[in-house]
Design goal:
By secondary structure, the protein is α/β, with parallel strands linked by helices. It is built from 12 helices and 24 strands. Helices cover about 35% and strands about 25% of the residues. Bound molecules: MU-OXO-diiron.
Length: about 400
């Protein structure tokens, strides 16, 4: 059969042999309107080494890209930097076909690949230690554990002679393109997709990201190329993506507020608009997001550089409206830091939603900057004035924090 898919050279000894998933739109709860790629890389060293594999259905695409360079049976080593299924789903089949001399992973990675059933029981996985160097004959590969960026097993691999960092999920983005390099893609698309990816995947591990960045700096590794497991490879202007990570990991708030709400009969919506207007008048950049129309991933993107989060819900059957329960569960897991906020909402008879929202904000360690505003049925002028006051109070507290 003719080879349809081909490899792309990314550095002197390294080729991209991954797969493009043009159609994926849901990545465990994160919407990916531009699709994604599963990047695998082949190092043509004395010991030919495959770095990560792809999601199971893309096995043949990856093998064809490898075949455009070499017979896959010539692969000596396979390295698994991250055992999540988008990078290891094809591992069992690949190992069975290729019969590599050795497969390497972090100690936790080796255990996780077994637990997930991604590796034949009868074969060994060689665990590697943080800082260990693996000789590929003429080249050296150094392993750096990056636990919890974003799984316990995660590690980077650094190819010394090519000054190339294989960074698994870090510095990646969900972006399906035929272009393989960041410098071939418009900067605004890169900025948006990198931020959305950080906000939806990496954000909870920001303190660990800062430590990892410090560690890479302290090691003095010269890095010419960053090759993540999703999206484009960075071969120019590495400061752009490294700078983004430094900024987002610090979670330094900006004068920006996000108002997130859902509405049944437009009462909570009217309240949200009064709050947003007050915060804009106070000088904040404001983003108003209705969960009736929007996806939770959009909220994760918008709060990345925000300093205030104000949330509103009507009460339905003594509870939050389901759209708000959804987004609050998602946000709580993402652990955004350094926020001020408040809760509001309308109700017909019982009114538990506002109390519940405020409790979630407190649980998220959001500083409550105003009393809640609840409204029975439809907001009148008095209620809307209270909402305006709530917006003023939240804005004042954020601006005070930013001094
Ligand atoms: Fe792209 Fe954590 O897998």
């Amino acid at each position: 059969m003719k080879n349809i898919f081909s490899a792309v050279r990314v550095s002197e000894h390294v080729y991209w042999v991954g797969a493009i998933d043009w159609n994926i739109r849901d990545f465990h709860g994160y919407t990916t309107p531009r699709g994604s790629t599963y990047n695998a890389f082949l190092i043509l060293a004395d010991k030919i080494t495959l770095i990560d594999v792809v999601k199971a259905p893309y096995r043949e695409e990856m093998l064809q890209r490898i075949r455009s360079l070499i017979d896959p049976s010539r692969i000596d080593y396979v390295v698994s930097n991250h055992s999540e299924l988008d990078h290891s789903g094809a591992l069992r089949d690949v190992v069975t076909l290729v019969k590599p001399e050795k497969v390497f992973a972090s100690a936790i990675g080796a255990k996780t690949l077994r637990e997930l059933g991604l590796y034949p029981e009868s074969l060994e996985i060689t665990p590697v230690k943080d800082g260990e160097t693996l000789s590929l004959g003429n080249l050296d590969l150094i392993f750096l554990e990056t636990r919890m960026i974003h799984w316990p097993d995660s590690m980077f691999s650094y190819l010394k002679q090519d000054e190339l960092l294989f960074s698994q999920d870090a510095f990646g983005m969900h972006l399906a393109t035929q272009e393989r390099f960041a410098d071939e893609i418009p900067a605004d698309i890169l900025a948006y997709e990198a931020a959305t990816y950080y906000g939806n995947i990496v954000l909870p591990y920001s303190p660990i990201v800062l430590k990892a960045l410090d560690r890479v700096l302290a090691l003095g590794l010269s890095i010419k190329t960053i090759a993540p497991d999703h999206g484009p490879v960075w071969r120019k202007d590495l400061g752009v993506i490294l700078g983004y990570y430094q900024k987002w990991a610090l979670q330094k708030p900006e004068p920006k507020a996000v108002v997130v709400y859902a509405t049944m009969w437009h009462s909570t919506e009217k309240m949200a608009r009064a709050i947003a207007e007050a915060m804009a008048q106070a000088g904040l950049r404001v983003k108003l997001i209705s969960m009736n129309e929007s996806h939770r991933s959009e909220v994760a993107y918008e709060i990345l550089e925000a300093g205030a989060l104000v949330v509103g819900s009507p009460t339905l059957n003594n509870n939050l409206l389901p759209q708000m329960a959804d987004v609050m569960t998602y946000l709580k897991g993402l652990k955004p830091a350094n926020l001020v906020g408040a809760a509001f909402g309308s109700y017909g008879w019982s009114g538990e939603s506002v109390r519940d929202l405020e409790a979630i904000l407190k649980d998220m360690k959001v500083e409550i900057a105003s009393e809640t505003v609840s409204c029975k049925h439809v907001p009148d002028e008095t209620v809307l004035e209270k909402c305006h006051d709530l917006g003023c109070a939240v804005a004042a507290r954020l601006l005070e924090r930013l001094k």
